[in-house]
Every structure is written in structure tokens, then in C-alpha cells.
Please model this.
Amino acid sequence: MQPVKIGILGLGTVGCGTVTVLSRNREEIARRAGREIKIIQASARDLKKPRPCATDGIQLVADVREIVRNPEVEVVVELIGGYEPARALVLEAIEHGKHVVTANKALIAVHGNEIFAAAQKKGVMVAFEAAVAGGIPIIKTIREGLTANRIEWLAGIINGTSNFILSEMRDKGADFADVLKEAQRLGYAETDPTFDVEGVDAAHKLTILAAIAFGIPLQFDKAYVEGISRISRLDVRYAEELGYRLKLLGIARRTDGAVELRVHPTLIPERRLIANVDGAMNAVLVKGDAVGPTMFYGAGAGAEPTASAVVADLVDVVRTLTTDPNNRVPHLAFQPDALADLPILPIEDVDTSYYLRLHALDRPGVLADVTRVLADQNISIEAILQKEPHAGEDTVPVIILTQRVREKNINAAIARIEGLGSIKGKVARIRLEHLNPDWK
Model:
């Protein structure tokens, strides 16, 4: 059979990784796909720039639209990232009847509904395994491997940069700003790290995971997003003393008639496997009603781990080129006309436990005032830890762990606590999840 001809938009880190993997494993991939996959074109901003991959036999072009409009190209691989021009290019490729493979989580999370509708209309596939968790095949796992299950919840460490920073803060007792500089020096963090450290990148990925887990439309704009830039090394240290690890978690969970969709720093008991995922690694914990809790771990970024997912998508596309479009695996796991219109639960209505750190004057009756405020909001206390006062200060750090409570109740309690004359400064608040197998 004739090779399937593909074009790659963007010959950067992942683009070169894809070229390398396809070349090195050409025979093995052809045996799996049933046909050879051949790159005939790739785009690059600087055509003369030295690259870490061999481009012999590949026509390099500066204008990405040459690839999108090339009648010989059957599959377009979009690796340029961002919202635009990626969205316009992908929609144009679909309009020309081409299948699309993308690693662009921002594109899918924000414009996926539009893109999938266009693909459905034209009878082509849009594959996006590489958009979430790099080399971990989490999309395929939820969409196909766990298809017999009613997914109850999932929780993931899905941003390697933030996980690296929190791991280094714990191991070295360092401040956020210092570790961020080190992460930038090592190439883990971008010059502008906002998407990573403020949780936006993780929210893009969580939006995609929630859609395929629960059969709901992509709703990135409704996700609650909170990053790690305000995390103190004190909180990392105190969490460790209390038997918890601090991670930036993406959590998607079914509730009665709604879905929780939230990204935020989270305390997790150190005995949980996911609490021990360190450095730039990713992990996703998925709870299905039949299979129970399952965890998937691996590299969340990098040239070849991400290329592994890109090439797997290419193989899937090639295998189904002659398949009736109506019999392919749906983009969001559920048939397009069977997606559920479940609302996303506002963060104020979410129930979780909390870690509170406050600085109180070292005098009798202060803790009684604080516990009275918590009791007035029906907040039960799990544990209280009072630390020694810092040298030269007249306040003592007090750590409070609460039982599960509605977010709006804890907000009201914090506002009242901060208004007490015996409390100095703001109350630090971090959500806490035990991730028990029976959490429903």
C-alpha cells in the first residue's frame, strides 16, 4: 500500500522528536499501522537553523498554509501551540478534508467544541493524546480502556513545572521565587511562567480530561484556577510535619447533578502514591465504579515522550482511514449527540477540607476566639498545631486542619478571623483532599 503522507506544523522540540521517533521506529510503526507513515513537509520559522533531527527527504517550508493546502498531505500534525493561528489552521485543514493530530491543550480546551463539530461534519478525525500528560496515554485510557466504567472522579499532577518547583521547595527549604529562577535556568519553566505556575496549563488539561471522563462539552471558562505563586516554604514545611505533601492538583469530580472542575494547590496524605510523584513527572489518578482507583505515571513533557503520543495518534488515524466515520471512537468518548449538559459547580459550593495558617498574638483566649468563629460556621476541627514564636516576634504561627466543609463557609470564617484584633495579617488557606478510594 502507498505510504500515508503527513505534514508537520512546527519543527520545534516536539516536532523534531516526532521526526526522530518516526524515523527510528519506522518499520515497527508500519507493522502496527498497516502502512508506512511518511513526513513529506514540515514548517519552520528559520529554514536554515540547525536542528536535532534529520530532515532529509522532508520539504521544509516557512508558510504553514502550504502544508494545510497541499493536496498530497493526508494528515496535518499541529505542533505550533497557542490559540491562533493554530485554530484557523486546524479548521482550514479540516475543511480540506485532512485529519489532524495535535499536542495543543490550549487549543482543544478552548476551541475543541468548534473543532470537533467541524471534523464531525467533514468525516475526519482530530486526535489529541499528546495534549495531556505528555507520554502518558491517559486520553486513550479513559476514552477506551475504561469505557465500561462510570468515572466518579480524577485527580492529576499535570503540570511538571509546578511539580518540580514544589518538590524543590520541600527538599531544599527554599522560597518559591528562588526555585522558579532555578527552574527557568534548567529549562523546566518558560521566561514567562504564568501559564504553568498560575495553573492555567493544568486547567487546560483538566478541562479535556473532564470532558472525556464525564461526557460533557469542553468548558475551560468555568474551571476554577489557582496557582502556586503564593505558596510559602513555611506551608510546605508544616504540611510535611503534619504528614502531607503539597501538590498542584487538577480535580474533576461528579457531584449530585453537577461536576467539580478545579485546579489549586492541595495537601495530600504522604502515604498516597500520587503524593510521592516528584520533580517534573506527571501522574493521573482515575476512579471508576467498576475498576476502582487506577494511577498513571510518566513524563509529562519532553521531545520524545510527547512524540510518543503524537505518533500513537498518527497510527490510530492511519488504522481508521478506511473506516466508516460513524464507527470511529468519538472525540470526547461519548457520541456527540449524547453529551450531558451538566453544570460546573462554582467553587463556593465545593466541599473539601482545609489547612489554615494564621499568626496570633501569644496570649490567653486567642485560640478560643478562633475556634468559636469556626464553630459558628459549622466547621469542625481535625487538628490544631501551635508553633514556637519566631525570634523577635510577638505572634505565634497556628496551623488548623478542618474537616470537610463548604467553601463559602470557610470564606466567611476566614473573613471574621482576619477581623479579630488578636490575629495579624492574612490567613493562609490551602485545600486538603484525602483522595480515599470511597470518595464519591
Remarks:
- The longest strand covers residues 244-255.
- The two ends are 50 Å apart (CA to CA).
- The chain has three domains: 4-136+303-338, 138-299, 348-432.
- The first helix runs from residue 13 to 24.
